[in-house]
């Protein structure tokens, strides 16, 4: 049986994120790296007592529990490269978005979210772990949206896509037949270096060496 795999190499960091009304009317594009509209918010939150308390509390909890989740929390800082504060900027400054959030007419997603939503004719508002982790709103330790971040930034969870495993293998997520002539299951979605790795057939140990920067890797 044919199956479709959504792969977006190197787009986990470069993805144009969407805050849209039922994926038909676009409010704003959120473009990572060069988009500085939330610069003042980033500086404000990084200098806030909330972040200072969060860092210190996590440092203390790490010393007691030795859990890596708290180690990460002890050094967390916000950056313009993260979509979280740009999404907050839109929720704060865009009146149509604010009005429609309360009506549950606003959805947010990454590139794969938009593709799958369109291919399934709006049946599925989902993403995978590799895409979600690039938003700055995902907690890799709990494998879900970070509730502390959603509370801190006042971002409603109702606008976020459901996060599935990269390879979910589900049969009910299918491309509508009107697009390709027949229904085809979408069984996986993957982005960034992981997508590039499989795209280059690097599936065995030693096939690839990846450095810290996503643009510098040896295959």
UniProtKB/TrEMBL annotation:
SUPFAM superfamilies registered for this protein in UniProt: Actin-like ATPase domain (SSF53067)
InterPro entries membership: ATPase_NBD, FGGY_N
Keyword Transferase: yes
GO BP field: glycerol metabolic process; glycerol-3-phosphate biosynthetic process; triglyceride metabolic process
GO terms for cellular component: mitochondrion
Ranges of residues in domain Carbohydrate kinase FGGY N-terminal: 26-198
Transmembrane segments: none
GO molecular function: kinase activity
Family: Belongs to the FGGY kinase family.
Protein name (Swiss-Prot/TrEMBL): Glycerol kinase 5
Species whose genome carries this gene: Cacopsylla melanoneura
């Amino acid at each position: 049986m044919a199956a479709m795999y959504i792969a977006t190499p190197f787009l986990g960091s470069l993805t144009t994120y969407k805050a849209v009304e039922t994926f038909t009317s676009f409010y704003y594009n959120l473009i990572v790296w060069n988009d500085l509209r939330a610069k003042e918010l980033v500086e404000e939150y990084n200098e806030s007592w909330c972040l200072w308390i969060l860092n210190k509390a996590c440092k203390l909890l790490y010393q007691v529990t030795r859990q890596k989740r708290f180690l990460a929390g002890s050094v967390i800082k916000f950056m313009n490269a993260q979509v979280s504060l740009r999404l907050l900027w839109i929720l704060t400054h865009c009146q149509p978005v604010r009005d429609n959030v309360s009506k549950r007419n606003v959805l947010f997603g990454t590139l794969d979210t938009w593709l799958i939503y369109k291919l399934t004719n709006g049946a599925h508002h989902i993403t995978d772990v590799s895409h979600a982790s690039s938003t700055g709103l995902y907690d890799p330790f709990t494998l879900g949206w970070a509730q502390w971040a959603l509370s801190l930034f006042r971002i409603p969870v109702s606008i976020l896509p459901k996060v599935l495993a990269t390879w979910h293998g589900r049969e009910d997520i299918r491309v509508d037949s009107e697009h390709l002539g027949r229904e085809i299951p979408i069984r996986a979605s993957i982005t960034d270096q992981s997508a590039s790795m499989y795209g280059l057939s690097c599936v065995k140990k030693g096939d690839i060496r990846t450095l810290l920067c996503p643009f510098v890797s040896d295959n």
